[in-house]
Every structure is written in structure tokens, then in C-alpha cells.
Amino acid sequence: MDGKSGNQLSRFVAGVDTHMDTHTLAILTGQGQVVLTATFPANHDGYCQLITALKNAGDVTTIGVEGTNSYGAGLTRALISAGFTVKEVLRPTRQVRRLRGKSDAIDAVEAARALLSNHGISTAKDSTTPAESLRVLLTARTQLINAGSAMLNSIKSLLVTAPEAVRSKYRGLSNQALVKRLAVSRPREAVECPSVAVVHAMRHLARARIDALNKAAELQQQMDSILREHYRQVLNIYGSSAIVAAELVVTIGGNPDRIRDEAAFASLCGVAPIPASTGRTNRYRLNRGGDRRGNKALHRI
User: Fold this and answer.
1) pLDDT in tens, 68-98
2) Between the N and C ends of the chain, which has fewer C-beta atoms within 10 Å?
3) Which of 74, 73, 69, 66 shows the shortest CA–CA distance to 104?
């Protein structure tokens, strides 16, 4: 831990490099001088110790945190509850790491310097609102849908290589009819026979797919309930289903005031054109960045 400088300024900025098990704090003066670096455990006690270090340092104006929606989510909530202003910062670029090396303390210092330069920072999302509930429900539903699709692909793959007696029995069925028929099938117990084993395997996959889709539908109903109670205006957008509305709300976050205008929202979703001009050529190109979930939702609408 570095000692405090004798001629430090009265105002400071701080940066935090977040990981699963530890968070590293760096406090800088307004002129960019490092006055303190320290590492704390990524748990409740560690959050309290980090906040105490911030308060003991003096007038810390703003804190830049890496990964406010991942490893730094819990710390971000604790800092906001303690009255601090939290900004999300990008991780150091490869050029910075080539020139200055890589360590948790270096990354924390770079997070604080990003605040001083006011480059690559944004207001952290509020993860204490119904929008956060939608995010976790949407994440679970997406995984269940993907798992169901993977199981259907496995069924069809097994059916391709199955004995002809099995293939002829299920040939020509639609995906839905195939899954339903396999789910209620009752193959013999002699699984050492390939023609019986493949039906056993496909039956288990079919039942697992049905269960996954039923759970996904239950999650969608829960999301629809949240949307109708808290975000009905988004749900009422023409072409906006419960899933599309949830994707838009998750992209915007629980504190929509952090997005200053429509142009900023378009840039966030990757639908604002990017200047690509040079010399006498004046043109724009498609934005390939931005939040892809929000981009997908707007495309569907």
C-alpha cells in the first residue's frame, strides 16, 4: 500500500479493478498522482473496508469501477448505498498494458485515470429496480430456449444415424410432433440393442426439451407481469412482445436518465451511423458495436 503524498489535493478520484475473489482500489489526486492502492476481498466485509478506505482518504468525488454488471455488481450497489457516485469504465487497452504492464493495481489506477480524462466512462446501471429482475429472468429464459434447441438438434442428429426401422417410424414428422411422439414412447428395456438405445436416448432428450420450454414459458409469464406493472409504455410499443420489451428495458436499465437523448440511445443500440469520412470523401458506415440485445429488439420491432 502506497503512503499519502504530503501535498495532496483536497479532491480525489478512485478506480477499482474487480475480480471474482478480490477488488483492488486505487485513489488518485486531481492531478493524477497515486496516493493509495489496496486490495480487499469481494464480499460484504471487503466492501465495508473499501468504503472505509475511501472515506479516510478525504473528498473522493467519483469512483470508476470495471464490470459494474459482472464482478463489480455487488460493490457498485454497496458504493451507491453509501452515497458515492459510480461510473463504469472500460478495461485498459492493449497499448496501455504493453507500455505499463498488467496487474490489479495498474488496472485500478487506469480506471481512476479514465475518470480524470473523462474518456470511455458511463453511468452505471441501477441494479436495484424491476429492470434487474427482468434481466435475470430473461437470461434464464434465453438459456432454457437455447438448451431446448440444442436438444432438438441432438434428437434429429441421432435420428439420422438410427437404424432404418426407427427412422421409418418417425420419418416425415414435424419437429413438434416428433418431440411429442418420442416423449410418450415406451421402448423395451434391452438398451444393449442399438435400435432400442437410440429411442431411449431420444425420449429423454424430448422430455427434457418439453420441460425446458415449459419453464421458459413460465419465466415469460413472470416477465410479462413485471412489464405490465412497471413498463407498460414499452410493452405497448407497436411490434413489441414481452420478450422484445424486456430486452429494451434491460438495455436501458433501471435508471433511464443516464441516457441523455434519443441519439445516445441509438448509439447505445448500435443503430446510429458512424462517420467514415476522409479528405473529400464524406460518408457514414453501419455501426457494428453497441448493445446487441437492444439492437436485436429494435430490428424485430
Assistant:
1) 989 999 999 999 999 999 999 988 777 766 7
2) N
3) 66
**CA atoms lying within 13 Å on the CB side of residue 92:** 24
Is the CB of residue 42 less than 8 Å from the CB of residue 75?
A: yes
Nearest to 216 by CA among 164, 153, 148: 148
Whether the full predicted model's pTM is greater than 0.85, yes or no, is: no
Radius of gyration of the chain (CA): 26
pLDDT in tens, 146-188: 999 999 999 999 999 999 989 999 998 999 999 999 999 988 7
Distance CA 294, CA 153 (A): 28
User: In terms of C-beta density within 10 A (0-12 exposed, 13-18 middle, 19 or more buried), how is residue 83 classed?
Assistant: exposed
Q: Nearest CA to 152 among 207, 84, 196, 192? A: 207
Please report which helix (H) or strand (E) contains residue 60, including its range: strand 59-66
- CA–CA distance, 169 with 189 (Å, rounded to integer): 19
Measure the CA–CA gap between 74 and 81, rounded to whole angstroms.
11
* CB neighbour list of residue 181: distance below 8 Å, 6 or more residues apart: 170, 173
